[in-house]
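Lab notebook, page 48
Experiment: co-folding of the full assembly
Goal: obtain a model of how the components sit together before planning crosslinking
Operator: M.T.
Materials (sequences as entered):
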Amino acid sequence: MSAPADWIAVDWGTTRLRAWVMDGAGREIAHLASDRGMGGLAPDAFEPALLELVGPHLAEGRATPVIACGMVGARQGWIEAAYEAVPCAPPGLAHATRAPAADPRLDVMILPGLSQDRPADVMRGEETQIAGFLATVPDFDGTICLPGTHTKWVQVSAGEVVSFRTVMTGELFAAISGHTVLRHTVGHGSDEAAFIDGVADGMARPEALTARLFGLRAEALLHGLDADAAASRLSGLLIGLELAGARGYWLGTRLALVGAAGLIARYAAALRAQGALPEVADGDEMVLAGLKAASAGRN
Amino acid sequence: MSAPADWIAVDWGTTRLRAWVMDGAGREIAHLASDRGMGGLAPDAFEPALLELVGPHLAEGRATPVIACGMVGARQGWIEAAYEAVPCAPPGLAHATRAPAADPRLDVMILPGLSQDRPADVMRGEETQIAGFLATVPDFDGTICLPGTHTKWVQVSAGEVVSFRTVMTGELFAAISGHTVLRHTVGHGSDEAAFIDGVADGMARPEALTARLFGLRAEALLHGLDADAAASRLSGLLIGLELAGARGYWLGTRLALVGAAGLIARYAAALRAQGALPEVADGDEMVLAGLKAASAGRN
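Observation: model returned without errors.
Model output:
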């Protein structure tokens, strides 16, 4: 029989559900994951999906606190955890929403995301990574960039999120490389020089983007452009466009990248080529640190 | 029994096959269409697809000339009709490639597309619309824009294509509205004011594109942005980005738009908002005019 949890940290996104089972001394007993993301679940399917994953770790006769963040709190999730409006500190348990659970062994609290009125913007999940980063680097003042499907650029000052901007770079890469004529041209490998060239070109001539895209196809047809170089150049063009638009977020300010190692390395290379020197932190570690910071608010 | 054809004009693209059956006096006997586009056909399936469509119009005992343009001449088509390199006039029959046909009633000639070495670019089919436009407006000197899935901006002088540029605006709109999170946000209707706003914004701040895209989602979530307005704004942003990049093609020059009426109207509105006054011509009429011009070269 597994050791019972003191509490459970949950990161529940669109495509994945992950849980860290914690003991009373703050140690990780187990790290669990499933593909039962919010995107595929009806509201009444969340509790069974969670029980399937963490059931063996629940003590009998008492409710185990579960602290969750991410799309589980969206309108289409388990229950809506209304956004907190910036400027504000990353929200803690005091702002969380209790999810309806039939099993008395569960006490599930969902942390809210953040919203910004003008320009309109929203995040769900990244605010908890930001909380984790600020718990780890408490004096941080500057910009946190969280690369991903929807990359977030977040201005942080005095422990608060001041403003943020979401760019769809990751999702655009997937849509262009998977659902346009470039699917015949773009491979899965990588070519560092082609990437850095693409970044420079995307930054210098953002208005040429849509012509550059077809140019990849034509370069492949006429001049044998390699599929890996095409993929890296496409990624570079899109990240270059993003960096041109987000210049106010990263130029001349303290900058941290939080996310998955591979993607972080790509953004770091692009930014270093522009003279920026980002700090880096692992996204999974930061989300767990953020959930731990929220859990500390239980007492 | 149908009247036999003198010759047959064929526009064979990726998704559609269209044929105009012509008599000896240059009149159209029939206009036929099928969905057997090049994209779904193996090389040996082209002849049956053509016979299925035009078979009843073929005379017995002699070969009927068929003049075709478009993706049918791509490497993955019936037979490759090698590109002609610009600068050059839109290619005529002298540069066409004979397709292998087993049926003695068919004599199929495929017109080549155009290629450009630097920056690398290609077209297949549009060159025939350009030929048709130049046959209709022989003194034209300036830029022809052919909006579509892959919009072409073509600089024409003294009857020759001097240079051109392909932008993937149409395909980007489809990929973004169909295969990203914006599929929940973008409708199918239209909103003229939102479109013109999007054009202005896309032109003024091309580097902000990827942030503006997620902004549509956030505007819908937070401020109830209408799905039709979102669709028009997305279209405007992408066309605005295109116009910013193609400025050298349309600013201060004679300009013609050739294509489908709905799309032409959209580009015309965007360009008029920038002070340009494009002439317009129907794309179907121009491709037929171009094939007729090629047919005149039979004699």
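Interpretation: The mean pLDDT of chain A is 96.
Next step: discuss with group before ordering constructs.
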